[in-house]
Amino acid sequence: MGFKGMFDLEKHYAFYGAYHRHRVNVLMHTLFVWPLFFSFLVLFYFTPPICSLFFSVPPKCFLTSHGLLLNFGFFLALLYAVTYVCLDWKAGSLAALLCLACWVGSSLLAQQLGFSLAWKFFLASQVICWAGQSIGHGVFEKRAPSNNMAQAFVMAPFFVLLEASFSCSSSSKRNHRSLRSQLLQCSKNFNLQVLQTTCGYEPYAGFNRSVEGKIEAEIEQLQSKTPSKKKAA
Predict the structure, then answer these.
(1) 27, 76, 89, 222: least buried by Cβ within 10 Å?
(2) Which of the 8 DSSP states describes residue 200?
(3) Rounded to an integer, what distance in angstroms lies between the CA atom of residue 70 and that of residue 48?
(4) Helices and strands: H and E segment counts in the chain
(5) 10 Å Cβ neighbour count for 75?
(6) pTM over 0.90
(7) Are the CB atoms for 157 and 34 separated by under 8 Å?
(8) Percent of the chain with pLDDT over 90
């Protein structure tokens, strides 16, 4: 994958969408993906700050005086933020702000917990969040998640944010259509198209139509790789 392909929003979203079609599975990921990211940042708060590599006594600044360390957790949040802005500067800017907010919140929480409690918080969060997503895939989607873990880890927080945006906008338009009909439309056309119809947002003209075709192509490819039960028998 070339440099341009790394930030191909259509390609990444279609790949993600092929594995997340059922609305309950989409809801599970909306609830649990960002807490997973947050719990990692809580644990990474205890990694040494980058200044400690160059100074025996790290210099004091406004951030460090408030317990905000420029450590691995910060650079991970920054990497995610820059990636999302490169994917789409409008929605990506919102996702980037959320990444940095998670870094600040996780740092403040980690200070209060200390490492002895922080790793337990991390472990409990991982178990609950992964279990919820596994139920979404196994019980409702009836399809195993992608084995491309790097792509899934990086892209999932950005895409579930778009799905959450649909949920927020739908509550303000109940007088126009029922929530049930919107959820059915969400399941049929996937979430970015609903985001366009409710908020008027689309990364660029023709994006949704192109993504829908790519999602269908991804699903057909997945189905062709999975032999049917009749053939197996």
Answers:
(1) 89
(2) -
(3) 8
(4) 12, 0
(5) 14
(6) no
(7) yes
(8) 31
